[in-house]
Amino acid sequence: MPLLFSKKPGCHEAYLKRKYHNPFFADDSTITQEMVNAAHQQDQKEIEIFQESFKSLMERSVALKPNTESEIILKLKEDIDKLYEQCAGLAGDHKAWKRGLKKLVDIVMEAIKKGAGNDTTALSELAQEEIARAQHYELLEYPLVAHLLRPDSPIQPDELATFLLAEEEETVTQVLSLFDPEHISALHEQAIQVLSEKPGITGLPYADTILALIKKHIHTQGIH
Questions:
Q1: Phi/psi class of residue 92: alpha, beta or left (left: φ > 0; alpha: ψ in -120 to 50)?
Q2: pTM for the complete prediction?
Q3: Which of 99, 116, 211, 220 is deepest in the core (most CB within 10 A)?
Q4: pLDDT in tens, the chain (224 residues)
Q5: Do the beta carbons of residue 168 and residue 204 sit within 8 Å?
Q6: 66, exposed or middle or buried, with CB in 10 Å at 0-12, 13-18, 19+?
């Protein structure tokens, strides 16, 4: 009987789901419904922890004063970004939390700009930071990206190429943007090895397309 997974799983359940539906993983038969349920509960616990962190962050933001020290404001900004990364990888859909965090970071950035006064260099750097943040937040809309960026990601380095062979081209493109040319080249070599070791595998008709996409990124980056 097929295993039952959530429609929008969190990091731990998604890890098992990716392995279970990927024929290149020889050990997918060892995944049981009990393991899936346990991973689901672990992901639900992370939502509870996030809620507490979100509440604490909001309380800190409300306590801000016009004369609040810059170090405190910068720490708040850093924590907002970290919490947004966590939110992006949670089970389910949490658009309201994301909107709240985006609004909060905008308020913090305005306070920092105000403190910069007429310093054109500082204001330029802040503008660049806002662009980079917006791009980073867009990347986090891809669950695999959000799960990879976790410090405690269950995805092992030697598994990533195998996971990518089962992903859609758009997701693979976004994941590859996280890595430097040398890392992409290594992923390409790993993907070739995976395909060569199991040439008769079926169920992933676009694996060769993904391999070509990874190779394309290598050449785009200037490695031949």
A1: left
A2: 0.90
A3: 211
A4: 789 999 999 999 999 999 998 888 876 668 999 999 999 999 999 999 999 999 999 999 988 888 888 899 999 999 999 999 999 999 999 999 999 999 999 999 999 999 888 999 999 999 999 999 999 999 999 999 999 999 999 999 999 999 999 999 999 999 999 999 999 999 999 999 999 887 777 667 788 899 999 999 987 765 44
A5: no
A6: exposed
